[in-house]
Amino acid sequence: MPLNMLVARHLSRRPPPASLGTLVKACTASSAHVTASFSPGATSATKAGRIIAPPTSLASSASIPSRAFAASASLKENYDHILVERCFPENSDVVGGGVGVITLHRPKALNALCDALFEDLIHAARVLDEDDDIGCIVITGSGKAFAAGADISEMSKREFANAYKTNMFSQWADITKMSKPIIAAVNGFALGGGCELAMMCDIILAGSKAQFGQPEINLGVIPGAGGTQRLVRAIGKSKAMEMVLTGNRINAQEAMDAGLVSRVIDSELLLEEAVKMGYGIAEKGGVAVRMCKEAVNAAEEMTLSEGLRFERRMFHSLFATRDQKEGMSAFLEKRKPNFTNE
Ligand code: CO8
């Protein structure tokens, strides 16, 4: 098996979905990078030629007590409903320049978001968020769906008291707590909770076959993870109201015209383009990237004057970073900056 395939597949025992064919090219890693990311010292075992230990950055981060999750965080060897890959640009020594790709992979159920899938998704997202080699995360779908919503067969049996007492689906919001940017690469149906999951991400790229909708009204319920709130902020009241009241879907171009997505990309190239965009973000200074995310997301919650003050304070604080010194020096010296994310 070529090295790049090994790297692209190292966290998945399942065969990658067909769409990953193009991604593998984008995920090509140099042998130097493989050594750096998966040093023998950190490798506990090798099965059938596949490295199955956590990457060194995760192994070493185990000693950093900064966040409770980090203490035991490593990607699982196998997930039931997702595929996870750590991709690195070819011939690059950018610090933290990798992109974590999480592929929702329950194609027979159109990636319906059952509890177990969401548990997998949140676990992997948290680990990648803590991984110093990774600067950006991509969430994508497989088959003909990004995700066709919450799992209706699982939901159909729930009763009010149980839903209320367990705060059903509240864990979904954990996706919005990641500090690194998340790109949703939507390639097919993004319906109900699937559309809401995409809206929890920071950038939505739509494949040309993408379809977005909030069809919960057809099931006798309403959206429950942002379809009546984030959608309004993204596309305005009238269009959002039409979507949630009629359950009608919009296509990729309509989503683009409405401001829900930032770009429409040929379906075949979507994942590759998303990973490339991720590499572009991951090569910037990591502290500034996180602050950009935090400040832009704060705009949804704050008044203009509060938001401007928050932005200015964050801007000031970046003058305490090495990356600010490096970025400005590099500009003046007419060279590329070498950010260290400090
Ligand atoms: N849940 C469970 N199974 C599903 C779902 C789903 N959401 N969507 C599709 N499937 C299954 C189908 O049952 C079918 O399974 P099987 O082959 O075993 O019969 C398989 O996927 C393929 O589906 P179809 O045969 O229907 O495929 P089509 O191409 O004919 O149609 C559609 C595709 C249009 C996407 C259609 O499947 C559909 O309408 N799906 C339901 C979409 C929907 O209503 N989504 C909203 C769900 S409710 C929700 O998301 C609420 C979120 C609240 C979050 C709250 C957080 C706090």
Automatic annotation (TrEMBL):
Top EC class for this record? lyase
EC numbers listed for it are: 4.2.1.17
Listed PROSITE patterns: ENOYL_COA_HYDRATASE (PS00166)
Q: What family is this? A: Belongs to the enoyl-CoA hydratase/isomerase family.
User: InterPro entries recorded for this chain?
Assistant: ClpP/crotonase-like_dom_sf, Enoyl-CoA_hyd/isom_CS, Enoyl-CoA_hydra/iso, Enoyl-CoA_hydra_C
Q: Name one Pfam family in it.
A: ECH_1
**Name the record gives this protein:** Probable enoyl-CoA hydratase, mitochondrial
Tell me the organism's taxonomic lineage.
Eukaryota, Sar, Stramenopiles, Ochrophyta, Bacillariophyta
Sorted UniProt keywords: Fatty acid metabolism, Lipid metabolism, Lyase
Q: Which GO terms describe its biological process?
A: fatty acid metabolic process
